[in-house]
Amino acid sequence: MPIIGSFGSGSGRGFGKGTGGKAPVLVYYLLLAGGGGGGAFANGGGGGGGGLRTNFPAGTQLELKGGTHTVTVGAGGNFHTNGSPSSIGTTIESTGGGGGQGPGFPYSPDGGAGSGSSLSPLPGGTGNLGGYSPPEGAPGAARSSPPSHPGVTAGGGGGGGGPAGSGGPVNADHWQGYAGSPNSITGSPVTYAGGGGAGAQGMSWIGGTGGAGGGGNGSYGEAYNNTAGADGQGGGGGGGGGGMGMTGPGSPGGDGKVILRTPTTAIISVSPGSNTVNTQPDHKLVTFNVTGTLDIEEGA
């Protein structure tokens, strides 16, 4: 069951004091799940970007209970499989991106952002599987063969991040991965959760490029040159291609990330060492690159 299904970037929620009387902390967050893996075989669909939920910069801050929390960073999915969710304890969660469809699979997986379809007339997978408001991601595209593109390719994966994401095609070329969402919680703009490009069938046919935000490229037919979604950006994996009886695998999706922005007065420790706390003049920035533990409380 989704965690806090109605909890969006415009809402706050109090949790009181945590274990040992530790005071709660008001935080901004960016919660990015793992991207879906690209579809395998010829003309595999692009993987959807990982679900992206954030209240920065304009949302109401989340009152996070003081104490110890397990922070889960979702892993990217392998070919055709969904990415894994990211979460902060049982407080808030985002959903992994949908794994791209490939021939022989009867559906296009739904996810934080939806997967691309490889079979007509099936649509791409739906986004916002968690049912959040605002949505955590957009749908993927259906298979297409427009006049501007030689051959038949699958659909590109959807972009994560709701209103700031693509919400649909960025152009008429539906085999391209859809764009993800930009955010500046780290102090600089970064785009996350791009959808994976679709794979093509046949050496002369062109695979889709990944969407902005770490989406992997789809294979150019028998070149088998599809690429993985970017780790730390939750990008969807590129779809596999093929031709002349040969088929290629889909590429994996990228791992997610969890970022918190807190007051400088907050007392914070994280583990393991690959997760970091950086103190800036007006805030602390907590970055989880891998699953670990957060201990947090508001100081005097």
Please supply descriptive tags for the structure shown above:
five-stranded antiparallel β-sheet, single chain, elongated, 300 residues, disordered N terminus, mainly beta, 15 strands
What report would you give on this structure?
- The protein starts with 24 loop residues before the first strand and ends with a strand.
- Strand 9 and strand 10 form a beta hairpin.
- It has strands at residues 25-32, 52-54, 62-64, 67-72, 86-88, 92-94, 181-183, 190-192, 242-243, 246-247, 257-262, 266-271, 276-279, 284-288, 292-298.
- Helix content is 0%, strand content 21%.
- By secondary structure, it is mainly beta.
- The protein contains no helices and 15 strands.
- It is elongated, with a radius of gyration of 19 Å.
- Strands 1, 2, 3, 11, 13 and 14 form a 6-stranded antiparallel beta sheet that branches.
Task: Furnish the topology, listing elements before pairings.
Layout: E1 25-32, E2 52-54, E3 62-64, E4 67-72, E5 86-88, E6 92-94, E7 181-183, E8 190-192, E9 242-243, E10 246-247, E11 257-262, E12 266-271, E13 276-279, E14 284-288, E15 292-298
Antiparallel strand pairs: 1-2, 1-3, 1-11, 4-5, 4-15, 5-6, 7-8, 9-10, 11-14, 12-15, 13-14
